[in-house]
Write a structure and sequence with these properties.
Layout (H helix, E strand, L loop, with lengths): L37 H67 L1
Length: about 100
């Protein structure tokens, strides 16, 4: 009933032209492979293309929001500086008025 399956270690060598070469289009003995139809393959490619397009769309939206955020941060800093300058300008005017009054006395 239950048969023992004997496994042996096999060593395969393949000459690749470089480290980053993606030549993975060969099948070795005892390697698990799956056969799919051309229509299934086309469907997989279509799904991957749609996902890649969605990813690019979201990446574009992310960078657009990032640029918008940077622009708003710069505007915020400018407005804070302007508020600070206006507050100090009022203080300076008050100090000048007090100084003028002091000089007159």
């Amino acid at each position: 009933m239950a048969e023992n399956i004997k496994t042996e270690q096999h060593y395969y060598t393949k000459d690749f032209s470089g480290y980053r070469n993606e030549e993975d289009n060969f099948v070795a003995n005892q390697e698990l492979t799956v056969t799919i139809t051309l229509n299934e393959y086309r469907k997989l490619i279509e799904i991957k293309a749609v996902k890649d397009k969605e990813e690019d769309t979201y990446r574009g939206k992310y960078f657009a929001e990032e640029r918008k955020n940077e622009k708003l941060e710069k505007e915020n800093i400018k407005l804070k500086n302007k508020i600070y300058e206006l507050q100090n300008e009022e203080d300076n005017e008050e100090c000048e008025e007090e100084y003028e009054e002091y000089k007159e006395d």
